[in-house]
Amino acid sequence: MLLLSAEGIFAGYGDMEVLHGIDLTVSEGEIVTMIGPNGAGKSTLMKAIFGLLRPTAGTVHFAGEEITGRSPDRVVRLGIAYVPQVENVFPSMTVHENLEMGAFPLRGDLRERLDGVYKLFPALESRRRVRVGRMSGGERQMVAMGRALMLDPKLLMLDEPSAALAPNLTATVFERIEAINRAGPAVLIVEQNAKQSLKMSHRGCVLAAGVKCLEDSGPNLLENEHVSRLYLGG
Amino acid sequence: MDSFVGVVNYLVFFAITAGIYAVLSLGLNLQWGYTGLFNIGVAGFYALGAYTAALVSGPPPDAWGGRVVGGFELPFLLGVLAAAVVAGLVALLIGLPTLRLRADYLAIATIGIAETIRLVLKNEAWLTNGVWGLQQIPSPLYGLIHRHAMGFLRDRPDLPNWIIQIVSRTYNWFYLLLVSVILFALYTLLKRLAGSPWGRVLKAIREDEDAAAMSGKNVFRFKLQALVLGAMVMGIGGALYAHYVRFISPASFEPLYGTFIVWVMLIIGGTGSNGGAILGAVVVWGIWAATDFITDYLPFTAPQGAALRILVIGVLLEVILVLRPGGLLSPSRRNRRPHPPG
Amino acid sequence: MDALARVPQLIVYGLVSGSILSLGGIGVSLTYSILGFSNFAHGDMMALGAYFALAALSILSGWGLSNRPLGPLSFGPGLLAALLVAVVLTSGSVVLLDRLLYRRLRHAGRITLMISTVGVALGLRNLIQFIWGPQPHYYTTRIQRAVAVPGLGVRIKPDQLFIVAVAVALAVLLHLFLRYTKTGKAMRATSDNPSLARVSGINTERVIVWTWIIGASLAAVAGVLTGIENKFVMPELGWQMLLSIFAAVILGGIGNPYGAIVGGMIVGISEEVSTAFVSTGYKPAVAFGILILMLLVRPSGILGRRE
User: Fold this and answer.
1) Chain C residues close to B314, C-beta within 8 Å
2) DSSP secondary structure, A39-84, as one string
3) Nearest Cβ partner of B303 from C123, C127, C133?
4) The domain that contains A158 carries what CATH number?
5) Whole-structure pTM value
6) Closest residue of A to B338, CA-based?
């Protein structure tokens, strides 16, 4: 079932247009990875979907509803969660408080959700009262993702989840993402570390210079020599 | 005819004062308009200039007030030069700790220095005569011009009254000329600087400080130069003021009003534009003078009237900031609605 | 030697003025941390609160609410009610001001916003002077006797104890609010990372309104307390304290409300103690000196994060 559908998105910053008409779909339960060179517009597309940026043209539909240009605090209530690439935690707040913020729109008891997140990231449970600003990159990334999961999103958008991490942690991150996907949400990923990400993706898209140039299943893209040479480092 | 003379004399006074404010605006334009330095202590540098000129060119201390120093009775231009130097030095002292830091810090530091200057002017009577102020500041060439004017009138006893009125105030015309010449000189100098490589670095710093730093410029040094130079210009303005009114006291330099009105002048005239600084001075001073007349006709007490006038200027500032932040003469780019954050 | 002997009493005075500076400084720090700019009109917001209370006091006593002194204090229920009214009116005015002015300038850059706060500062002060005139207005004309504090060799007036108590109570309340309430946490999150706060579903516009409400309320209380301490209010009440408040805020670490409390106390005590050694005319210069010292040594402040 189609979950997210972005059609003909044009967007940019000020006078500079970055996206020149992009279509993207994500279906329920899918993992979709966007790869491409820096400046291609991958992060911009995510921001446009989530409402951090207003598209100059095009529409975004989610679960049947049009959400083009809606502000983030309303989009998040519909079931999309977004983890930015940088500054994706509240550094002066504790792990526990960061997770609480993830469920901000909700009232009532958060214990079940918190337990769910701690089960997924057991290392966080013992450090729930630690200020996130003091934690390592890997732990922060876990907190960032945990925060996003608190609302039980239908779609999780991750902007370069492995960017700030040491290589040995990357495998863990992707393994966690797969686990998250198995439990429910569709996942849309922007990645530089394309190989690992495409390996577990149902579908992949290549974005370059603000347009989508290629789309195929994840494993197929991995095999594709052209893609491999240009974007996967040979 | 007499009322015509009255109007003319008023216009001369108006033009001189507007000219002095224009000098201050030019100084602020160098600091804020070109370089983006947030100086809320304009009145402080202005006061320093005025007092320095008065102490350098004024008469020696007299029996009362408590002053024991100064009064060297040196020529006008030396006083102006000294005023610029002293203002520049204090700007240097303030700039050193603050220019590497955020704009807010410079703002507070300049509020602080203006306040401290005011306290020193009030309390250190040995230097400044305290609240009694400095009197009898000589106006340049006053004796000479006045004698000639009076001689001219004495030789022609049958002139109509209105001519007598105008000629007896010849000195003011001279002073207007003096202020205009100095204003024009400063304007030309600053315009030259704006177009120079130095000026372009300042503008680059205002646009994007990090980019300027990354292209190898010692941003701190440039900012300091702009701050000091701008302060020197303000000091010159202060000297011009002192020699015109011939009596100054701490009360003449109410810090915030002096500073605030210059900011409004620059913003309305056009931040970044030297012509705008001058235009803004004339326009705002005109509005200020107009409100003076208007409140005379309204049933308010004197302090109420004064408060209302400042309120008007304040509201004017806010309206301009919201509707046309670039001011009247600024390049149209600054007036475009800014882009929301990406 | 005589100067040193006065120090303990001056410290007591410093605690009192420090309490007021702290309350003012908290608002400045909160505004800075959540809205991102320094509000130079904060002192005049305090004056606004003080004058709203003045007006409310006379209206309320006209309606029959007595202001008979409670116990050893110099005021009674009338002033306390007036204080509440002042808090409401000042918060309302500031929220309105945000709606009309600051909101429209939010994308224009920090410095433009700060310039506009200077305009607001002057505007508020002159509005007050226009309505009430430049002469002092008295909250009370009673003279209060200071009582000796047993064992410490200092004296303090009951009003002054009240001031310190109010400041402490409000500081504790604020701490509890920020730490444990949903809105408080939303404020902390917005100050930490505004875009992530939006991403998490926090309505940052509402957080901003709350910031103004809390800042303005504390400012109003600080203004009224100033009126109680000095016995009278004047239009320049707030501007006179602005330099000290900002020195306190920067000393404590701009953006950190707890730093504002620490900074306020230190600046208050320093200013008072300095009068033993330097002429009272120079009190504001003491704040300025502290400010410059901090900027030279540690601009991020005592409790601030390293820049």
Assistant:
1) 119-120, 122-123, 126
2) TSSHHHHHHHHHTSS--SEEEEEETTEE-TT--HHHHHHHTEEEE-
3) C133
4) 3.40.50.300
5) 0.89
6) A14
